[in-house]
Amino acid sequence: MNRKIKILGIAPYEGLKVLMEQAASKRDDIQLTAVKGNLEEGKKIVQAMGQEYDIILSRANTADMIRSVTHLPVIDIGISYYDVLHCIRQAKATGNPFSIIGFHGLTSIAKSLCELMEYSIEITSVHSADNVKELLKGVKEKGYETIVCDTVPYPYANLMGITPILLTTGIDSLNAAIDNAVKHYRNEAQYLEQISVLKKTVSSTETYTVVFDTKKMLLFSFNAQPDSESILQKIYKAIDASPCVNADFFINAKGTVYSVHCHYYGEEKNPYYICHINPTGIPMTYSKYGIKILNRVKAEEIYSTSFYSTTNASKELQSKLAQINETNTSVMITGEIGTGKNKAAMLLYSKGQDKNNPLFTIDCSLLNDRNWNYLVSNYNSPFMENKNTIYISNIESLDEAKQHHLLSIMTDTNLHLRNRLILSCSSGYKQHIPHIAMRFTNLLNAYVLYMPSLREQERDIPSSATLYLNTLNQQLGKQVASIQPPAMELLLAYDWPFNITQFQRVLKEIVTLTGTSHVTPEVVGQVLEQEARFVISKSLDSDIPMAGQKSESISPVNLSQPLHFIIRDIVEYTLDKCNGNQSAAAKKLGIGRTTLWRYLNHDK
Questions:
Q1: What pLDDT digit, counting tens, does each position of 163-203 carry?
Q2: Quick one: which of 200, 226, 189 has its CA closest to 73?
Q3: Closest CA to 122 of 497, 136, 131
Q4: Which of 63, 333, 519, 527 is spaced 20 to 30 A from 498 at the CA atom?
């Protein structure tokens, strides 16, 4: 029996990685390893570990970049007309004006589709990642709120307040590419088998070994480590300091110390290095739980990949940033649990005056006594630094003595003048800001940034939920296009005591359970009924309302009853909101008058 073909799949986004794994699980002729990596990141992954495979599978521009650093065959998954049409239909479903922006693979297909379907959509071609920001500025100035794009414009659009819908690959396109990879390999089987024998001979030991030339093109890699990319970059840096010599040295990569034995072979026609890398087992300093150090790039990534960045509240926040960040004044972020305070802090820092200096994050809810003592008494504490941004979250979690101690440190050492301080404090369901938050605010003369609850943004729930479908499709390898109107009414009727955090989690559960192109009220009812039991169990001794219950009155929808009664309640509620006008109610629900009448008279 022929051995399985070893394929390395480089996925520009998480959803394609999931699809690759699903497709590989249904085949017995391949062994596919899927790794997430876009453009330069994908190229570095192949440089670090690609030589252990027979063939490489990737998409569009990432595939083109990978070809420049490997001698292995690279199969492009390609972009199908159906993939582009699916994204256009999803963008139309949002009801917002949108345009299409991306590299040639996307825009050429989009132009053909628009001509065929007689769509009037503005299409912008990207020729280099360097001018993406300028092109997006032009798109925003023209009033477009949403774009269909490939992976390069996606993160920049989020930061600029434009909602991106990522071009995703369908399972048919992926299966066709895998078939193409298998066919290509079999055509070259004899040659590749000789290479495979050589690889097995060299990799017979457990040592991580790499071979690369003087231009740092990786020729071979064996027994790759989880942190191969980081290890290689450290080795390249050490060799640049002393080129063209044999050398033994140590490197530290992501908390592990490695010994490197590097041999230079310069007498060959094409000089190269052979490096043998082994972990030493030397322990690194312990991680300080509850305290992290981030840079601007990481903070932007945390914000731009979050659900909060797709909401209208985030767009309103971005419009305030210019005024808030005119000075380095301290900021107190307040609001209920789950309203996106941490994401707002990431955005504040990444657009602040000290964005090129580190961001220290301190989560008071995670601090133990040892780390508290480190913060307030160690000379390496972030409180001893200057010109940085310090984000202290969940200050209400500290006991009263520590709250007073922290206030004293801030005022006595001018911590808020030496650094940019961002603090956050959470209130309970429909409760006022805790008193301690006002003490910090007043003593630091801080700007108060209030994060509204989801109930206060009820009108934004339909658009936020629809736009988040695109993100979930990427993450879960799904192609859910819309949420049916009765299902949306169920989401609107719920009170969301844990706000955006709960909303995001529930939507993910709904999409996970959805097996069609549209979210149905049956699935939403099932998830919210389970959510109701969870919230009830958590709220027996608290002020969180029962599921489906508002604080002032009972919700129009009782989620504990059978589904057909839930749907009838939605119809009756909508009819009441339309003042008894059945035509208007049917239009709002997206159903016919006959269907509306049938729901109203079910079991009556």
A1: 999 988 888 889 999 999 988 888 777 665 666 776 676 66
A2: 189
A3: 136
A4: 519
- Pair of tokens at residue 313: 């509240």
Within 10 angstroms of residue 77's Cβ, the number of other Cβ atoms is 29
Q: Among residues of the chain, what percentage have pLDDT more than 90?
A: 30
Classify residue 575 by burial, with Cβ atoms within 10 Å: 0-12, 13-18, 19+. Answer: buried
Exposed / middle / buried, residue 47 (Cβ in 10 Å: 0-12, 13-18, 19+): buried
pTM (2 d.p.): 0.52
- DSSP symbol at 28: S
> 8 has which bridge partners?
33, 56
Between 525 and 358, whose confidence is greater? 525
Q: For residues 448 and 324, what is the distance between their CA atoms, to the nearest angstrom?
A: 10
Residue type, 559: L
Which structure tokens are listed for 484? 């049916």
- Asked whether 493 and 570 are in contact (CB, 8 A), the reply is yes
Residues 6+ apart with CB under 8 A from 527: 506, 509, 510, 513
Lowest mean pLDDT: which of 62-76, 106-120, 283-297?
Answer: 283-297
Residues 6+ apart with CB under 8 A from 431: 336, 543
146-149 vs 98-102, strand pairing mode: parallel
Interacting residues of 6 by C-beta distance below 8 A, sequence separation 6+: 30, 31, 33, 52, 53, 54, 55
What are 424's two structure tokens?
């956050």
User: In whole angstroms, what is the distance from residue 192 CA to residue 175 CA?
Assistant: 22
